[in-house]
Amino acid sequence: MHPARAFRSDADPLDQAAVTGFAHVFAGTPEAPMVVHAPVTRHGASLRFHVARANRIARHLDGAIVLLSVVGPQGYISPNWYERPGDQVPTWNYVAVEIDGQAAPVGDDDLVEHLDALAANHEPHDRPWTRDKMDDALFRRMLGGIRGFGVTVAATRTTDKRSQNKSDADRAGVIAGLDREGNVALAAAMRA
After folding, report:
1. Burial level of 105, CB count in 10 A (0-12/13-18/19+)?
2. Distances (CA, A) of 20 to 13, 114, 185
3. What is the DSSP string of 135-178?
4. pLDDT in tens, 14-43
5. What is the pTM assigned to this prediction?
């Protein structure tokens, strides 16, 4: 995470993770350090995620100390977007959360709750998919192909680097540059 206090977020890190909904889950294993890319949901003071049962990391996660890295809007910032580009260097703006914790397997009911929460959080509001659209026997067979885990959170860290340390004119130039480059997510995050 960025060391400057100016880039700390007041937002709840677990809420940020749930809104983004996707994490890199890192774990040290006897074989080697491993990472899996997994959808995440918040459940009170903990997070849940799932992985393919066949994923090489799945067998190492029971009781593992994990680091979840969740990255929101991000992008390259050109010095040419500032009022005085000759006084600046390239940088990167980003919104990110790191979560330390311990993973433990969850039962089928908690896994289904996690999957339902994923759909509720990310489906289009006009025509959302819900589990009741699926044959239950098929759903249960497919459920056997994944493993769900809960993470007991031990610590969180955030970075919310959106040119807060720059002048209003420089921020406006960065937003315009991001818009021109098509990075609408980061431009919108900077406007917020």
Report:
1. middle
2. 11, 15, 12
3. -HHHHHHHHTTEEEEEEEEEEEEEEEESSTTS-HHHHHHHHHHH
4. 999 999 999 999 999 999 999 999 999 999
5. 0.91
